[in-house]
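Q: What structure does this chain adopt?
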Amino acid sequence: MGAVSQQIRELCDGSPILSRILAVLTVLFLVGVSYFSWIRPYQLNWRATNEEVGQRMAGDDLNPDPSFLATRAITIAGSPDEIWPWLLQMGYGRAGFYGYDLLENIGSPMGIRSAEEIQPEFQRFGVGDEVPISAVVSMTFHAIEPNRHLIWVGSEEIEPGAFTWALYPLEEGQTRLVSRIRWSYHWRPISVIPLVLFTEFADHIAVRKILQGVQGRVEGNVEPMWIQNAELFTFVGTLFIFTVALLLICLRRLTWQSWAAGLFAGAVWLTTWYAPIPSWLSVLLALAAIGALYLVPRQRPEVG
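A:
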C-alpha cells in the first residue's frame, strides 16, 4: 500500500494537471460518500416514524421495486377534512404547491404565489384527471379517497412513478400527513436525465417545503414569500460556491488549503440543502465558505 501511495505521489509531482484532477475527484468522492451514507437515508424518511416508513400505503402496488422510495411526514393541527381540500387543489396552474413559488409557479396563469385559501373551482377532480406538475410535465389522479388519500401516477407503462398523499388522524384534532414517492429511474431518452437528478438530489427540498406549506395554511400561519425566496437563493448560492471551489482547485496553485477549502464548500452545500438548520445559519455558512475560498493562496497553477 505504501509503495502504491509513493507511486501516486511521484506521478502527481510530475504532472500538476493530474494532481489537480485527483484533488477534485477526491473532494467529490468524500462528498458523495457523505451523501449516500448519511444524508440520503435521512432525507428519504424526513420526519417519518419507523412505523410509517414500514407500513403499506395505497399505491405501493403500482411500483413494487422502485429505485427511489421516499416516505416523509408532518403533524398538522387540523382534521383530515380540513387538510384534504389543500391537497386536492394542488398543481401547476391551479393552487400551486405551497413550496418555493418562485421556482414552482413561474409562468403559471394563476400567478406566482400559491393559493392561501381553498379554491372551489379546483375541488371537483376524478380518477384519470390531469395533475400538471409544471408547464411541460403532468401526472394523473390514479386514486382519490376523500379525507384519506390521493395518488398521482406518471405516464410510464411499466413501473410508473407514484406519488401518494395520505392522512392519518391522531388524537386532539391532529393529523399526520404522509407523502410517499415510488420512482424507477429511466435514463433514456437523455432528456429525462435532469428529472432523474432533480428527483435524487432536490426532491427532498421540494416535498419538505410542500408539507410545511400545507401545515402553515391549515394552521393559519402562511410563510411570507421573501423567506422562501431567501432559502431558495441560499440553496442556489451554496451549490454555486461549491462549483466555484472545484474550479479554483484546478485554476489555482494546488495546496492543502485550497483542497480543504473545496471540501469545506462541499460540506456547506450538503448542510444547507439537507440539514434542519435555520436560514440565518445557512447564510453564515455560505459566507464562511466564501471567506475560505478568498483566503486560499491565489497564485496561478504551474504549467506542466
